[in-house]
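QA checklist item 7 of 12: single-chain prediction sanity check.
[x] sequence parsed
[x] length recorded as 352
[x] structure emitted
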Amino acid sequence: TGQPYPIKGIWVQCCNLIGGIGYDPQRWVRALKKLDFVAVVDTFMTPTAELADIVLPAATFLEKNGVRSWWTPLEAIVKAVEVEGCKPDNEINFELARRFNPDLKWKSCEELLDDIVSPAGMTFGELAQQGWVLPPDGHPSAPYHRHKRGLLRPDGRPGFKTPSGRMELYSVLRERWGLEPLPHHEEPPFSPVSSPELFEQYPLILTTGRRSPVYFNSEHRNIPWLRDADPDPVVELHPETAASLGIGDGEWVWIENMFGKCRLKAKLTRVVPRWLASATHGWWYPEREGAEPSLRGAWDSSTNQLLPMGYHGKDGLGSHAKCTLCRVYRAHQAPPSAYAVPSSARKEVGDV
């Protein structure tokens, strides 16, 4: 809209707006085209990267140094290989930070990593040699019972970091912010209860949260042996629901609602209830043409085309991605990008 001021550019990193997380991806395409400059940092040429003015090739996890300290002891991530022309995300961001602030405290990513691990009494190099460390007994970073020792609150008193110092089921902060202080239910914006007239036309509940054992969100469809394991976008339907719609197992179907439609392959299973269509998300086809209008098949099987923007809770939380309305019917043919694993890839899988 240009309000409250026009946006001139966008930096997209660790994110595939068009083929992954962006609701109403056609709207995202229009938004990107209005900008003067689009920069994308990615490991692969995603549909979003195809729309960029410049693409910075990011390194994979095997090509970067880093630190991990959540759900595990303090661990060093040590790069195993370097690929010419690629940089790790942290190095790209560090160089960008130096442009914004020439007086940055650290002169290199190595100095920054040293500073991050300094509370452990060692440098990053020393941690890398050791691999991992646990905090010593009594150390403030030890994870258990910190509330009893006054290590969570700025005032040093025992308790939790809440106004009352207690674990609050009734959130005083949310009350101060004008939000509901207690957990509560809000009916999704498009459901049999909130929109019964639409439910007459779209009598199934669509969830786009079906998971794959080999993919993560919109990643990895371009890796042959993973694609061989899970070659097509799938929607799970109850056998009785499918029978009532004349849909057989393995048939391509349209999923459609008032906002858009996409094609997926039906998988019949009693795991899902009769009223549900459980669809995979984040599907695009790396083998397809990258230029518009294809954008690597971004419009064939993306369930985000059925999800408009702006329908979330007033605190910004909650989403209709797991609970909206749809109807499902036979497509009679596969999308042009329906995947056939090349013989070379099959041989590669066999060699592994």
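[x] summary fact logged: Residues 9-129 form a domain with the Rossmann fold fold (CATH 3.40.50.740).
[ ] second reviewer sign-off
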